[in-house]
Amino acid sequence: MYGLLSGGARGPAVRPARSVLTSLMESVGTAGLAAAADRPSLLAEIDQHAAAVRDSLAAAGSVVHDAALAGYAEGVREAAGSHGWQPPTTREHDGSTLDGSTVDWSAPDWVLARLVAVCALASAQAARDRTAWAACPLNGGPPPAGGDRPAAG
Fold first, then answer.
1. What is d(CA 32, CA 121) in angstroms, rounded to the nearest whole number?
2. What is the 3-state secondary structure (H, E, C) of 107-144?
């Protein structure tokens, strides 16, 4: 699926991966993940979608990282858009859209659930990256076990 849906990430106007993921988080991720935190069934659905995204990336020879996730999300949006799907533009946390309607998080469509899953994976990856950065001895983290902190410079 990744190969089929990754076409949105190609071409001269490719947005940087972090920009794509930030935009996705603002449009559906923040509200979707907040809704999932309050709805165990939605959380389970998002988790299943996240596992499928990881499997698709692995089948394409990739791992979970910003560029792969952004390409996947762009591909999903492009493919869904070609079939008439329109993303809701949600406000932070409350799930209401800019036109005043609300997203029914009790039964999100497949595309919306898949995109929220991409946001969940991107958030988890960003947290791991921050932890790794902070733990690096060159960035002020703890020294390696049994050794002194390497000299900077």
1. 13
2. CCCHHHHHHHHHHHHHHHHHHHHHHHHHHCHHHCCCCC
Q: pLDDT for 24-77, tens place per residue?
A: 988 888 888 999 999 999 999 999 999 999 999 999 998 888 999 999 999 999
Nearest CA to 31 among 122, 121, 127, 120?
Answer: 120
Place of tokens 């009790």: 106
Give the bridge partners for 12, in sequence order. Answer: none
Name the residue among 143, 148, 14, 138 with its Cα closest to residue 73.
Answer: 14
Name, in order, each residue with C-beta under 8 angstroms of 77's C-beta and a sequence gap of 6 or more.
Answer: 8, 87, 111, 115
User: CA nearest 70: which of 21, 32, 4, 113?
Assistant: 21
Q: What is the pTM of this model?
A: 0.72
The DSSP code sequence of 74-118 is: HHHHHHHHTTT-----BPTTT-BBTTS-B--TTS--HHHHHHHHH
From the number of C-beta atoms within 10 Å of its C-beta (0-12, 13-18, 19+), residue 87 rates as middle
- Alpha-carbon torsion, ordered 100, 105, 106, 111, to 10 deg: 120
Q: Where are the domains of the chain?
A: 2-8+15-139
